[in-house]
Each structure stands twice: as C-alpha cells, then as structure tokens.
Known about the structure:
The chain is α+β, with helices and mostly antiparallel strands and 320 residues long. It has helices at residues 2-20, 24-28, 37-42, 84-91, 95-101, 133-140, 144-151; strands spanning 44-46, 49-51, 57-58, 74-77, 114-117, 122-126, 162-166, 189-190, 197-200, 203-204, 219-220, 223-226, 232-234, 239-247, 251-257, 262-272, 280-281, 286-290, 300-307, 310-312, 317-318. Strand 15 (251-257) and strand 16 (262-272) form a beta hairpin.
Amino acid sequence: MRLNRYVTHAVVLLVATVLSGYSISAQLSRVPGPISAAAGSAGGTVGDVSLGRDATILKPVSIPTSAIPSRAPILYKVMPGDTLDSVATALGVPFREVTWSNPGLRLPLKPGLVLHIPPVPGFVLVVKAGDSMAGLASRYGFDVTAAEDINRVRGPLTPGSMLVIPVDPQQGPDLSTGVPADPISPGHLVCPIQGAQIIQKFGPTSFALEPPYDGYLHFHTGVDLLAGYGTPIFAAAGGTVTASGLADYFGVRVEITDSYGLVEIYAHMSETAALSIGQRVQQGQEIGLVGSTGLSIGAHLHLQLEVGGLPRDPLPLTGC
C-alpha cells in the first residue's frame, strides 16, 4: 500500500509537468556550456566560471604577468678602492642612506665589508632583542603601517632580521619628537649662517696652522664661514647634542649627531646656546654665536661633518 502511494504521487507530478509545458532540459540549457557529473566532481568550467571538486564554484583568478619587485635589503660587498661616494654613485643612492643603514661605519671602507643598502628611499635597520615595530617607529619617527607593508611582517619581530624603513626622499627621517632630523634635500645641509661667504673649503691646504691628515702635511677638515663676532649660528641639520663646551683645537664647540650617525661640529664659537647633552635640536634652531676660540685667527665658523668618525666634505651648503 505504501509503495503504491509513492507511485501514485510520482505519476501525478509527471502529468502536471507535461500539462504545464515545463521542461527540465530547457532550464538546463539556459546555463552556457554542458554540466556533467564529471565536471562537478573532478573540476571543470561552465562559461567563465570554474567548478572545483565537490561542485565548489571558484571565481576566475588573474595571474601576474611580470615579476613582483624585490623589497629585500641590497647587500653590497666592498671592493678594493671603493669609497662611500663611489658606492653611493654606483648604486644610485644618496650617501646618507648608506650611513643611515650601516651605523658605526668607519672610513676608509675595508674590502670585504658587506654594506646594507635600502631598495627604496629610506634605510635598513637590524632588529635587536626586545625591539617592536611600534618601539622602533617611536625611536626613528617612521610610519608603522608603511614599514609593515613594505617588509610584509605582522606581529613580533625576529632579532637579527633586517627591516627596510621607507622615508620620504624629499624630507628624510624624523627625530623621535616628530620634527625633521635632516635637510629637505638628502645629502645637503642648510647653511648655518644664511648668506655667509665660504672662505676656506674642505681638503689639502697650504695654511700652516692646519694639522696633517690623510697623508697631507696640512688639511682643512671642514669649511669656514666668514661672519662677524656674535653672529647667531643655526643648526644645519637636526639631531641630538652629543658634546658642548670647550675643546682644544675647536675652542668652544657644539656637536650634533643624528639618529643615523652623521655628526656636525660647529667650532670656534664665542658661546653656545643653553644646550644640554642629549637634548634634541631641530634644523634651523639657534645653537650659539660666532667667535674666535681655539685654533683660530679671526671671527668665523668652522663647520665639520663626520661620517664614521672621520671628516668628509659638507658641501654644498644650501644658502651659503
């Protein structure tokens, strides 16, 4: 009796379908392309839609046709005869980015030394134990999201790993206080006395008062700016005060070091501003007055730039 009831229902449904003109095959034909059991279980396509195993519908995926550029730090092995400038020129990066990325760098460069070079405008940072992205961003003044994106990292950092920290090439990195630490144009310093005349440049000289250096009998290790006694002196770049007061050769001087190891020394001053060791100084901030202390024969400012503990030419100075 139960079987007959099922058969009766089936017959009634079939008759209703025929009388209504409804066609199952017509409905299936509306789907472009054939649908088969094989396509549903083993994968296939219907029109522009892919069918995965167990009839899972998969959206079309576009495949990149070009290689994704590497964002890993560039490792450069120093060759005999390499200098900081020649390496920067060969790799097409400002020398500042080389010094930022290799703290404690000493000159002359030793063959075999491996330098870290950023693949984008910025610097390379080696993670130390206890470092976090937020903590590093607070210390160096960079954007956490931008750094995480370019390094493709989330969560805890691995000690010893290298991070590429992107920096606006028109501004340079910031101090931890958020103010610019470096000149607007990377590699150039702002003239500490706007409009001042440069009366002696960096390099070998016949001036007998200058000490020997780099194989020369007399060598001027900075640039001299002519200015009257008591003229205000302004920071050529921002950083932290690492020395202030009297020194033998320099007389009264102020030393400012940025977060990446670049040192500016302002010498022969008559007096310094009220600066304390460790104080943050912003570019353009007054740091003292012109004088003639130390090894000097007249009022002027001696500006010395050091990289890796050794002097290098600070020119050009924007505004001198």
